[in-house]
Amino acid sequence: MAEMLPVMESFYTLQGEGFHQGMASYFIRLGGCDVGCVWCDVKESWPIETHPQKSIQSLLTEVLESGSPNVVITGGEPSMHDLRPLTEAFQAAGKQVWIETAGTNVLLGSFDWICVSPKKFKPVLPENLGLAHELKVIVYNKNDFKWAESHRNHVSDDCLLYLQPEWSREREMLPLIVEYVKKHPAWRISLQSHKYMRIP
Predict the structure, then answer these.
(1) In this structure, what are the phi and psi dihedrals at residue 102, rounded to the nearest 5 degrees?
(2) How many domains are there within the chain?
(3) For the chain, first and last CA: distance in Å?
């Protein structure tokens, strides 16, 4: 099991998206991605080898010093890594552990909240959809509504459903999402509020 992990960046901020929007959260962005979304705004996270290796203890120390009650593990694509030692250490320290993932690999870790955001560039594992507390679909064009519904069929009845405009297409897509949610009220809108607030 991994005692060292490639970390692109780690920082204390507010969760900007989805169900936990606005909550104080310590983000750990892991290096490495096997998805490769063309519109990704953190493409520098993709190569594993360019990011420094950090120990679980050093990451735990960062989180404890921040005072954050919540830890968000993101990427890149965090499911590429064995996260069991890391997540167990955080939970043993009393922290809530959330993950944001495209779900392209088996999830190895102990998570209090799983946000699965499937991407067209590499399929999500069906079993990860079944584990999701939150399904967050990025809407880049009109076809993404039908694609979102195809994934809705594989999540649990308790899973929260979010549609989020891709940032560069927000002006075009947001009005369409608003109308779609009005007609399909099982869905909610997620916005990247951290970008409006100009925080990490």
Answers:
(1) -80, -10
(2) 1
(3) 30
44, 54, 176, 191 from 61: Cα distances, Å: 25, 11, 44, 31
The encoded tokens of residue 103 equal: 């779900």
Tokens 């890149």, residue located: 76
Confidence of residue 23 (pLDDT cuts 50, 70, 90): very high
**Element housing 72 (H / E):** strand 70-74
Q: Using CA atoms, how far apart are residues 135 and 124, in angstroms rounded to an integer?
A: 12
What is the domain range of residue 125?
4-197
Q: Check the CA dihedral 163-127-73-14 and report its sign.
A: positive
pTM greater than the 0.90 cutoff: yes
Would you give the DSSP letter of residue 83? -
